[in-house]
Specification:
The complex is a heterodimer of chains A (114) and B (155).
Chain A: H1 2-25, E1 31-32, H2 33-41, H3 53-62, E2 66-71, E3 79-84, H4 86-113
Chain B: H1 9-22, H2 28-47, H3 53-63, H4 66-71, H5 93-108, H6 112-123, H7 129-154
The chains are: A alpha+beta (114), B mainly alpha (155).
Chain lengths: 114, 155
């Protein structure tokens, strides 16, 4: 039971942080969906399966935090690219500030506790 | 359908089919978007110059379990929400009284009975304005009928 509870709260933490990691990854330049998902998928501490990133990307698009564009490719069908929007930037900045103080507080408590 | 001849084309179609089945309760636009994204992803892998069956299988593995992907469509309801039931209270004593008085009230106390029924109907919080007018038309019919009889018997 204890292990299950631990997994659940880690899942919640991951889920909460992940969308801001996505925003951060598309904040400098627009990214091809397949590369973006591949990069995120390699971060094992965050992502369990690459496929679950697509519903997340769709939700961020519906919320207006990222935008998609289609670009022609030389080798195949048009490619879907993601980039951050202005409200995405605002959300990312707000999270980054919150995150720093949250992380420091948790670090302090955990270190003291041990 | 993924272009046949590409490495892993059959495996891609079968994987997309499994996601499609797992996503059958998603709203159609979300389901179509998800299937498009996953197919594009796998076709991109399959179109790579050094692609092999094995590299496509590995990409399918990394995408993961279709059920898990569909389940991650949360933050919003993952299944179609049932249409909201209209926020109207069920018939209460007032409405039952109105119907009874409008139908049989005239036999008990002519004119007064159906009139009381109309008052009940218009006081009802559950009935819409349209329904109250229907009750009024039906009710006043029985009142007019009694008045007609009265006049008929006098003159």
């Amino acid at each position: 039971m204890e292990a299950t509870g631990q997994r659940t709260s880690l899942t919640q933490l991951r889920r909460g942080a992940l969308e801001y990691c996505v925003l951060a990854l598309v904040s400098h330049e627009e990214r091809y969906a397949v590369d973006l998902v591949g990069d995120l998928g390699r971060v094992e501490a965050l992502v369990t399966s690459e496929g679950t990133l697509y519903p997340l990307l769709s939700r961020l698009r519906r919320e207006g935090l990222v935008a998609t564009t289609w670009r022609e490719s030389e080798t195949g069908p048009p490619r879907r690219y993601y980039r951050i929007t202005e409200s995405g930037r605002v959300a990312l900045r707000a999270f980054a500030e919150e995150w720093t103080s949250f992380r420091d507080a948790v670090d302090t408590l955990i270190t003291e506790g041990n | 359908m993924t272009q046949t001849g590409l490495p892993g084309a059959g495996a891609i179609d079968s994987y997309i089919g499994r996601v499609d089945a797992a996503a059958r309760n998603l709203p159609p636009d979300r389901r179509i978007e998800l299937l498009d994204q996953l197919r594009e992803h796998l076709e991109a892998v399959s179109l790579a110059p050094d692609a092999t069956e094995a590299s496509v299988f590995a990409a399918i593995d990394r995408l993961g379990d279709p059920a898990e992907i569909v389940a991650s469509e949360d933050g919003e309801p993952a299944v179609l929400a049932l249409p909201p039931t209209p926020a109207r209270s069920a018939w209460g004593p007032l409405e039952i009284m109105a119907v009874l008085l409008l139908i049989v009230g005239g036999f008990l106390i002519p004119i007064i009975g159906p009139l009381a029924g109309l008052v009940c109907a218009w006081l009802s919080p559950a009935w819409t304005r349209g329904e109250k007018w229907i009750a009024t038309l039906l009710g006043s019919g029985s009142i007019l009928l009694v008045i007609g009889f009265l006049f008929g018997s006098i003159f």
